[in-house]
Design goal:
Order of helices and strands: HHHHHHHHHEE
Structural class: mainly alpha
Shape: globular
Distance between the termini: 37 Å
Largest sheet: 2 strands, antiparallel
Number of strands: 2
Strand content: under 5%
Length: 261
Amino acid sequence: MSNPPMPTISDPVTTGRASAVERAAAALPTAGLSLLSVGSLLILLLHVLPPSNRVNPMTRTISQYALEANGWMFDVGVFALAVGSMAVLAGLVRAGVVRAISGTSLFLTFWSVSLAVLVVFEKYDYQNGASTGASGMIHRMASLVAFLSLPIAVLLASRGAARRNPSWRRPATWTRWAAIAACACFSLLIYAIVQSFFTDTRWWRVFPLGGMERLIALSDVVAVFALGAWARIAQPGLAPAGSAGLADQVSDGPGGAALVQ
């Protein structure tokens, strides 16, 4: 007579560690949104706190704040935006909204890396010279890559999402419209550059440069916030009632009782 199988007892230490990891992973979108909020707040404060409040927001770019005495706020703020964006991406991947290797992941990484490059390579201080120098040129190219990459990443994320999961229809719509707004703002810069090839007007004189850049940056940050909200909503266990969720049910034979949801 064979002995009955011994019941399996989960190791409480291993289970506790797994639960802690799961909780940390589920908190990624919230952490990302928090970092995005901190970064945005620091950059907004630079507009009103001395001595950076003397910078004309319509004629000077946001990076001008990095050259002021309280420029550390710009560096910390932009780094917070970069790290927060990557946390949002990790939350999107965990929720199954995007794949780890995909166009969205690639372009959102471009956006984050470009933001970090903006901090490492400062813009050239035009008040003290006429040439951008190597650092200034890298800074300018990183700005262009960041402004171009973010709308593409957000558009790709929203494409076909509602077909994969009906519960994502609303956040996908919000995200898509945020991406369209970001594209519309970026088109102002494209227009300014293109017209400079056919007219005598320099691209930075078509629109107030500082105002145009702030408009583009604001639309990009709003789009990242939209992605972060989507990642937060889409986390396993937070799907709206009545939706199928992210995992398929595993049925216990003919009875149809769900063992795993």
